[in-house]
C-alpha cells in the first residue's frame, strides 16, 4: 500500500537532507531473491545440449570405424579414421576454417529438410587418387583444384562415405544421403545464413605417412526435427530394438533352410484279429474316411495344421486348410488310463 506524506513530513525530510542528517543506506537484495547469473554469448548459442552432443560423438565414432574399413579396402592400404571433436559454432566460423581451393561437397539428408557440407582435405584427396591409379600415395606440394578425372574418382569415394554415414545414422532415423553439388571455393557454399548455428564433426584421416582432416557440417535447422531423438537413452533403445529386429530376421533365414518331418494322420478303421491274420502283400484295407475329409498334419510329432490329401501332378500332397491353435488343459494330466488315444486326438 502506498503511503502519502503530509506537508510537514515533506518539509522535515527536505530540511534533513539539506543538513546532511540522512545517512545513505546500501541497498542489498534479499537473500532469497539472489540468483546465479550465467553469461550467455549470443554469437555462440548452445542450441544442442551436452547429452545430444555426446550422442553425435558416439554416432560418428561408429562412422569413423566403418569409413576406415571402407577406405582401406578401396585404396588397398591401411587407413585410420579417428574422431577428433564435435563442436557447436556458427556457419561463418566453419566457412572461415576451410582453405581454398577446397574439396567440399554439399549433400542432402532425405527426409530431413536442409543440406549439409562435407569437406575433405586436399592431401587426403590426392593420396586416394594416387593410390587408385596405382601410385604409392604421394602428396602434392602445391595446392590446386581437382581435375575432371580426379573428381570422378572422388565421387566414388564420397558415395562410399555417404553409405557409411547412412549406416551410422540409422540408429537415430533412416536417412538417405545424396551428393548434390561440388565446390572448390568455400565462400560460395551458402546453405544457411552466416549466423546460423551448425554442428561440426572433425575427423582425422591417416593414410600411411599422410595426415588429413575431414569435416562434416550439419546446420541446426536441418537437424531441428530430430534433435529430440539425439539423446543417449533414445539411441540405446533404438539400437536394441534394431538389433532385436535384425536378430529375428537372421533366425528366420536360418530356420528356412532347416529340414522338418511332415506327415498326415489318417483316422484309420476297425478290423478283427482274424482279418489281420489273413492280410497279405497287395491287399487293400479300406479306411473309415473320405478323400474330402480333413486330416491332422503333424510337423515333428506336433499337430500343427488341418488339411486335405490328394495329388499334385504325380506326387502325393496335402492342402492346408487351417492352423491348429494350441490348447491349454490346466494342470490335469492326460493318461491312457483316463483318456483313450482317440479322445486325445479329438481334443487336439
What keyword list fits this structure?
single chain; 348 residues; alpha+beta; Chemotaxis protein chec; Surface presentation of antigens (SPOA); 6-stranded antiparallel beta sheet; 4-stranded antiparallel beta sheet; flat
Question: What can you see in these coordinates?
Answer:
The protein is α+β, with helices and mostly antiparallel strands. It has helices at 7-19, 50-75, 91-97, 122-132, 148-169, 220-223, 232-256, 273-277, 341-347; strands spanning 79-90, 103-110, 115-120, 176-183, 197-207, 210-219, 262-265, 295-299, 302-312, 315-323. Helix 2 packs across helix 5 (148-169). The chain is flat, with a radius of gyration of 39 Å.
Compact overview of the structure:
This protein has 348 residues and is of the alpha+beta class.
Topology, please?
Layout: H1 7-19, H2 50-75, E1 79-90, H3 91-97, E2 103-110, E3 115-120, H4 122-132, H5 148-169, E4 176-183, E5 197-207, E6 210-219, H6 220-223, H7 232-256, E7 262-265, H8 273-277, E8 295-299, E9 302-312, E10 315-323, H9 341-347
Antiparallel strand pairs: 1-5, 2-3, 2-4, 3-6, 5-6, 7-8, 8-9, 9-10
Helix pairs in contact: 2-5
Tell me which CATH architecture of the largest domain applies here.
3-Layer(aba) Sandwich
Shape: flat
Which percent range fits the helix content?
Answer: 25-40%
Order of helices and strands: HHEHEEHHEEEHHEHEEEH
Number of strands: 10
**What is the percentage of strand-forming residues?**
15-25%
From the helix content, strand content and strand pairing, which structural class follows?
alpha+beta
- The overall pLDDT average reads 79
- Counting structural domains, the number is 2
- Give the C-alpha Rg: 39 Å
CATH H level of the largest domain: which superfamily?
A: CheC-like
The CATH class label of the largest domain is Alpha Beta
Continuous helix count: 9
How are strands sequenced across the largest beta sheet? 1-5-6-3-2-4
**Low-confidence segments, ≥5 residues, pLDDT <50?**
330-348
Distance between the termini: 87 Å
Largest sheet report: 6 strands, antiparallel
The fold-level CATH name of the largest domain is Chemotaxis protein chec
Amino acid at each position: 500500500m502506498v503511503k502519502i506524506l503530509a506537508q510537514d513530513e515533506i518539509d522535515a525530510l527536505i530540511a534533513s537532507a539539506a543538513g546532511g542528517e540522512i545517512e545513505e543506506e546500501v541497498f542489498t537484495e534479499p537473500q532469497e531473491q539472489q540468483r546465479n547469473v550465467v553469461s550467455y554469448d549470443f554469437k555462440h548459442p548452445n542450441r544442442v545440449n551436452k547429452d545430444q552432443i555426446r550422442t553425435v560423438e558416439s554416432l560418428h565414432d561408429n562412422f569413423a570405424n566403418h569409413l576406415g574399413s571402407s577406405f582401406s579396402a578401396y585404396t588397398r592400404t591401411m587407413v585410420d579414421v579417428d574422431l577428433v571433436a564435435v563442436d557447436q559454432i556458427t556457419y561463418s566460423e566453419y566457412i572461415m576454417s576451410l582453405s581454398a581451393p577446397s574439396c567440399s561437397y554439399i549433400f542432402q539428408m532425405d527426409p530431413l529438410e536442409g543440406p549439409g557440407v562435407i569437406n575433405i582435405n586436399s592431401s587426403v584427396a590426392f593420396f586416394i587418387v594416387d593410390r587408385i591409379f596405382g601410385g604409392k600415395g604421394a602428396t602434392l606440394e602445391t595446392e590446386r583444384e581437382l581435375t575432371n578425372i580426379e573428381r570422378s574418382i572422388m565421387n566414388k569415394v564420397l558415395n562410399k562415405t555417404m553409405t557409411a554415414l547412412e549406416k551410422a545414422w540409422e540408429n537415430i532415423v533412416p536417412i538417405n544421403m545424396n551428393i548434390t553439388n561440388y565446390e572448390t571455393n568455400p565462400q560460395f557454399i551458402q546453405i544457411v545464413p552466416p549466423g546460423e548455428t551448425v554442428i561440426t564433426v572433425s575427423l582425422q584421416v591417416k593414410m600411411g605417412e599422410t595426415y588429413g582432416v575431414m569435416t562434416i557440417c550439419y546446420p541446426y535447422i536441418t537437424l531441428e526435427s530430430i534433435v529430440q531423438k539425439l539423446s543417449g537413452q533414445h539411441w540405446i533403445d533404438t539400437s536394441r530394438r534394431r538389433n532385436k529386429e535384425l536378430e529375428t530376421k537372421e533366425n528366420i533365414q536360418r530356420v528356412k533352410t532347416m529340414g522338418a518331418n511332415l506327415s498326415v494322420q489318417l483316422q484309420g478303421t476297425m478290423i478283427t484279429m482274424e482279418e489281420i491274420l489273413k492280410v497279405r502283400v497287395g491287399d487293400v484295407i479300406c479306411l473309415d474316411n473320405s478323400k474330402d475329409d480333413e486330416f491332422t498334419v503333424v510337423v515333428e510329432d506336433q499337430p500343427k495344421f488341418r488339411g486335405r490329401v490328394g495329388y499334385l501332378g504325380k506326387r502325393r500332397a496335402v492342402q492346408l486348410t487351417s492352423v491348429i491353435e494350441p490348447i491349454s488343459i490346466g494342470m490335469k494330466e492326460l493318461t491312457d488310463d483316463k483318456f483313450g488315444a482317440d479322445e486325445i486326438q479329438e481334443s487336439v
